[in-house]
Amino acid sequence: MNNNFDWKKYLIVFLITVGLFVTASYVSNYFGEQKINQLKSIQDQIAIDILSSETQFSLLSELSCKNISDSVYSPELDELGNKLEWSQKNLGITEEVTYLKKYYALLQIKDYLLAKKISARCGVKSAFILYFYTTAENCSLCEQESMVLGELRAKYPELRVYSFDYSTDLSAVNSMLQIYKIKDTALPALVINDNVLTGLQKLEDLDARIKESFKLQEKVEGDSKNNVK
Amino acid sequence: MASITGSIFYILVFLSVYVQVFFFVTFLENRKKIITRNGKIKLKSYPTVTIAVPCWNEEKTVEKTIRSLMKLNYPKDKIKFFLINDGSTDGTLSVLNSFKKYPNIKIFDKENGGKFTALNLALKNADSEFFGCLDADSFADSESLIRIMSYFENDKEVMAVAPSVVVDNPKNFIQKAQKVDYNMGVYFKKMLGFLGAINVTPGPLTVFRKKVFDNLGPYKHGHNTEDMEIAYRMQKNHYKIDHCNDAYVYTNTPATVKKLYKQRLRWIYGFINNTIDYKNVLFKKKYGNFAVFTLPMGIISIVSVSYLFGKIVYNFFNFIYTKLIQFKLIGFGFKSSTFNFDPFFINTQSFIFLIILVYCLVVFAILFGSKMTKEKKIFSMNTLYFFPVFGFIAPFWLLKAVFNTIINRKPSWR
Fold first, then answer.
1. Tens digits of per-residue pLDDT, B346-384?
2. Position B101 confidence tier, pLDDT thresholds 50, 70, 90
3. pLDDT at A66 over 70
4. What's the burial of A145, exposed, middle or buried (CB within 10 Å: 0-12/13-18/19+)?
5. Which of B400, B399, B380 lies closest to B177 in space, CA to CA?
6. Rounded Cα distance, B281 and B302, in Å
7. Which residues in chain B touch residue A4, judged by CB atoms under 8 angstroms apart?
8. Residues A22-44 as b or e (16 or more Cβ within 10 Å = b)
9. Would residue B337 count as lying in a domain?
10. B289 and A38: CB-CB below 8 Å?
C-alpha cells in the first residue's frame, strides 16, 4: 500500500530553508552595513563642514560677516537625522546605530553653538529649538511633537531644530539636560529662547514663539546698528 | 509584545518558504515524469465506467456537460452516464429527459438531498469497475477519460485519478483571476500527486475504482465538500490518488465576488472541518505526506493569511489614526509632499528577500501550471488580476470559515 513518507526529504528541505534564511540575513546585513557606511560618510561630511565653518568664522570674524553666509548651515544634518531615525526603527538598535546617534548629537550641539554665534554676530535671521524626546519607551506625544516641528521647519527655513534622544548616553547631551533641568518624566521638552517648555506644544503656540524670536533678533540688530551710529 | 509578534511572523515566513521549497524540490525530482500527451491514445483493455452527473438547478449548463460526455473518446458499450436530478426547481429535468433516447444514458429523479445523496444513488445503481462524477457546470475534453484510464492501466495500486480542472471561457476579471488560480492548482496538484498527498478528488471528473466505495462506503456529507471527505478517507486507508495532468476538464467559475466568496468559504470550511474530523491522522507518518505535509500546509496557510491580514488591518488603522492626529495638529500642512526617492529608505530586512522568494516560486507555479494546461499565452495579463483579487478577498473567506467553524454554522452551497 501507499506509504510515501521520506524523512530525508523533509530534512533536506529544512536545511535548504535554513540556508535561504541565512543567505537572506547575510544579504540584509550587507545592505545594513552599506547604510551604516553611508551614514558615516554623511557624518564625516557634516563634521568637516562644521569644522570648516568654525575655522572660517574664526578667520573672518574680525573682518566681515559677508562671507559667512548660507554655507554654515548644513542641510545634511536634517537628512542624517531622518536616516538615523529610520535606521533605528528598521535596523534595530545596534551598537553602530547607537554610536552614530551619539556622534550626531555632538554634531548638532556644535552646529547649534556655531549657528548661534554667527546669528548673534552677523545678524543672520534665525530661531533655535532644542528638542528632547525619548525612544526608550513608547512616547506618542514625542511623535506628535515631531510632526509639529517638521511642519514648522518646512514653514520657516530659518528655524533650526536640534533633536536629542534623552537616552543618548553622552556627557555633552547630559550637560544640556542638566542646564535646562529636563527630566524623562516630562518629555517631550523644548527649549526656545531659553524657555523650557514641557509636554506637547501646539503649532500655533510655537509659531508665535518663533515669530517672537525673530522679533527679538531684529530688535537686537537694530540696537547694535544704533550703537554703531 | 513586539518581539513575540515578530517571532511569530518569522516562524510563519519560515514555514511558507519551507512549503514552497518542498514543492519546488518535488518538481525538480519529478520534472521528467510530467508528460503531456497530444492526440489520441489507446488502452490495452477498456474496463467499464459509470459517470454520474448530479444536477441541482443546472438547466443552463447541463446540456453542454452531457454533450461533452457523449463525445468522450471511449467505447460506447463500456461507458454509462447516470444523470441525477436532485430535486431541481428549474427546467433541469426536462433537459435531462431529452437525452432519454440514448441507450447508455440513464436518468434518475429524486428529492433534493444534496450532492452526496445524488452520487450515492448513482453508486447504488452502478455495476461498472470504475466510477466517476462530472459536475453539471463542467465539460470534459474528449480525450480526458481515456488518459485518466491509462493511469489505472499503468499502476494497479492507483485507486483514484483526478484531472486538470481548467477555467472555461473566463469573461470578467474575477473569472480571469480564477483561471490563474486553477492553472496554479494544476501544478500543485501534480506535485501532491507525486507526493501521494492529494486531499481533494474534485467533482469535475475524478474517476475511482468502484471498489473504493465498496470497501470504504459511499459518499458522506463531508461539510458540503464530499469530494474532499472521500479523499481524506482514502488517504487514511492508504489508497493511492494520482493526478492526470493532461486530462482536461473545463469548469464554469463564479462570475461575481459574492459567488466566489461563497464557493471558497464552502471549500475552506470543508477543509477546516474535514481536517478536524480526521485530526487523528495529522503528523502521523504512517499516513504519509498527506498527514505530514498537505494538511499542515493547509493549516499554515490559513494561519499565515489570517496573521498577515490582521497585521495589514492594524497597520491600516494605525496609518489612519496617525493621519487624523497629524490633521488635528497641523491641518493639511505646509510641507510640500514632493517625493524624493532615496534608495537608503528601501527596506532591506531579511524577510523582504524571503517573501520575494516565495512570490517567485508562486509565479513559477502559475507559469508552469499554465504550460501544463497548454495555455497559449503563458505570460498572461490574468496573472495581474490574480494577486489583487485573491490577496484582497481570500482573507475574508478564510477568516469567515474559521469564524463559522468556531460558532459551528454551516455555509450554504451557493
1. 877 888 899 999 999 999 999 999 999 887 777 778 888
2. very high
3. no
4. buried
5. B380
6. 19
7. 195-197, 288-289
8. eebbeebeebbeebbebbeebbe
9. no
10. no
Whether omega for the bond prior to residue A188 falls within 30 degrees of 0, making it cis, is: yes
B252 domain-assigned: yes
What CA–CA distances, in Å, run from B402 to B66, B301, B311?
37, 12, 17
Cell of A7: 524523512
Q: B18 and A17: CB-CB below 8 Å?
A: yes
Provide the domain count of chain B: 1
Minimal Cα–Cα distance from A28 to chain B, Å? Answer: 5
Q: Which residue has the cell 556622534?
A: A103
Residue type, B277: D
Give CA–CA dist B241/B201, Å, rounded: 8
Residues in chain B: 414
Statement: residue A72 has pLDDT above 60: no
Lowest mean pLDDT among B81-95, B224-238, B285-299, B399-413: B399-413
Between A and B, how many CB-CB pairs are < 8 A?
96
Look up residue A135 and give its DSSP letter.
Answer: S
Distance from the Cα of A196 to chain B's closest Cα (Å) equals: 21
Write the CATH number of the domain with boundaries A125-229. Answer: 3.40.30.10
pLDDT at B57: 93
**If you average pLDDT over residues B211-221, what whole number do you get?**
95
Pick the residue from chain A with its C-alpha nearest to B196: A4
CA B10 to chain centre: 28
pLDDT, residue A153, reads 81
Across the range A142-169, mean pLDDT stands at: 83
Residue B295, pLDDT above cutoff 60: yes
Residue B95 within any structural domain of the chain: no
**Which of B234, B349, B359 is the mutation pick for testing A, counting most A CBs within 10 A?**
B349
Amino acid at B368: F
Cβ–Cβ gap A3/B22 under 8 Å: no
CB B235 within 8 A of CB B199: yes
Q: What is the domain extent for residue B221?
A: 1-41+139-331+349-414
Q: Is the dihedral of CA B54, B59, B60, B62 positive or negative?
A: positive
Place of cell 491522522: B281
Instruction: List pLDDT tens digits, range B113-146.
Output: 999 999 999 999 999 999 999 999 999 999 999 9
Is residue B73 in a domain?
no
Q: Please count the other Cβ atoms lying within 10 Å of the Cβ belonging to residue A171.
A: 9
% of chain B surpassing 90 pLDDT = 75
pLDDT of residue B372: 92
* Sequential DSSP letters for A144-213: HHHHHHHHHHHH-TTEEEEEEETT---HHHHHHHHHTT--GGG-SEEEETTEEEESPPPHHHHHHHHHHH
- Top residue of A1, A3, A5, A142 to mutate, by most chain B CBs within 10 Å, is A5
